[in-house]
Design goal:
With 438 residues, this protein is α+β, with helices and mostly antiparallel strands. The chain has 15 helices and 11 strands. It has helices spanning 7-22, 30-33, 42-47, 50-58, 68-72, 81-93, 163-170, 190-198, 217-220, 274-283, 285-295, 305-327, 338-358, 365-375, 430-436, and strands spanning 100-109, 118-119, 127-136, 142-147, 180-183, 203-207, 230-234, 239-246, 249-255, 396-397, 408-409. Strands 1, 2, 3, 4, 5, 6, 7, 8 and 9 form a 9-stranded mixed sheet that branches. The protein has a two-stranded antiparallel sheet with strand order 10-11. The longest helix is centred in the C-terminal third of the chain and has 23 residues, at 305-327. The radius of gyration is 30 Å and the shape is elongated. The two termini are 50 Å apart.
Amino acid sequence: MIRETNTIELKAALGLLYLAGVFRSSRQNLEDLWANDGTGVDIFRSTMPLKRFQILVACLRFDCAGTRNDRRRIDKLAPIRAIFERYINHCQECYTPSEYMTIDEKLEAFRGRCGFRQYIPNKPAKYGIKVFALVDARTFYIFNLEVYVGKQPDGPFSLSNKPDDIVLRLVEPIRGSNRNITFDNWFASYPLLIKLLKEYKLSAVCTLKKNKREIPPVMLAVRGREERSSMFGFQSNIMLVSYIPKKGKNVLLFSALHHDRKIDTDTNELKKPEVITFYNFTKGGIDVVDELSGTYSVSRNSRRWPLTLFYSILNSAAINAMIIWKSNNNDKTSKLPRRKFLKELGLSLVNEYREKRQENPHVRRELRRQIAETSGSSDGQGIRGDPSAKRQKVSRRCCLCPRKADRKSFYTCHSCNRYICMDHCSFTCDECQASNSP
């Protein structure tokens, strides 16, 4: 029978996931982390047994199983919809992003069974769950997310998957804020920029595919144009630039933020227009988020796609937490490395459970002593077998008496720490003990 859990124990399990990421062991064999041969990490073994951790992770669910089938008829994301939307709401309530935002897609690696699993060959994982993200281009704070689930059944969750509609849904929380949005050519279109300007009060900078009918033929032509030259086109609100980085190739960008022919002098002989420099500066937000998530990832191999998305939530939550923490602290403390921040985060989640485990008389004495020594709160006081500690009223069967005798004792051997009764004890005075000591 599986023992019931509680909030404190679940927080400890999440803390161990973060600590596994800190030790770069998120996808490592769990037995290696809990090993007691000197190669393991003590914090895992002293927090909870390996089997208990495996049970907690295996039993993680994010919705009511009784109504899941009914909800799945109208929503493919039903198993994790509630917690995912709740997390997004918290992200938007806790932080005010900068004036520059970026939109792009990220891929959560997953190769199990999933009705909306995607294959993206230019991504490192190749197979996984595609997630669209709105990220602060300056601080890399993750402000909004949307999971791509393909075509939804008819109902309240049936939404358009056109690029324009995806962008409009992602920027809805910052509507009317006069911010700028940067995205690539998969999302870009002239009608989208006009709608963002007029209805959402947002400017945009984006690259363009060459098959857009709004592009004048003269902007597409590259024959006869010099390398590192630029051609500009203007309307009342939007600028189009065509840049030749090398012979026979051109780069096209739309901008509702820039309205001049200014060349960035810092690019020297490349002579890049300022709009291209701005695009390069603000476009990499999602790439940085992917790098941060992958460096100290809590993700573990799983065949359950809701659990994969939950690991993604934990990774992005840790990134956002550090950004908020840095914003609320002075310059000196905000220089704390991310690895140490995640370590402190994991320890803060497991400490309450470790303190309760230290007070549990049924936990092995050496583990309780280890918890006391590493926590630094009790200095080993109250540990059974410590001569300076108050003896716990817990007895065990004598290890030397026959089992059928069932003789209990409060005393343990000084050398091996096994329980022994008075018949198997030997007493030594202080003088003899001092003479026998080396």
